[in-house]
Fold this protein.
Amino acid sequence: MKIQQLILIISSLLSLFKQRSIETILQTENPLLIVTSGTFNRYLEINDNFFIFIHSPWCKWSQKFETILLQINRHLRLEKQTGYIGAIDNTIENFTEHFKTSINDGLLDSSYTYPSLIYFLNGKKLDTYNSRINFDEVFLWMKR
């Protein structure tokens, strides 16, 4: 019974998400945007500065990184900075399988591990963060 309830809740949330336009979602105070294979290209099209966070909820490093990204996102919104942070849950969206088109187009690399943070400028992959996971370093990297 509990699994059926969970499936029903998830289905309801997904249908709510699909009913809202991406532009509406971007205008809210949503902490991190949920990125799926179906929304990835659209987010890139409508954002000049876009960061993709590839994570897995059970990974302790992903959890630490997500906490830092939530803090950074609050700072960016308070400072009225442009740029959004999207999150790909690798346990739901099998990265290599669901993002095959983006990988083939050179936007993404199939060898990402989690957690990974990728920076896109005007729809083109510009850089991947590969330093220590702490607020100051990640924040400075994102603001440059």
User: Anything to note?
Assistant: The two ends are 50 Å apart (CA to CA). Strands lie at 33-34, 49-55, 84-89, 116-121, 124-129. Residues 25 and 33 are 8 Å apart (CA to CA).
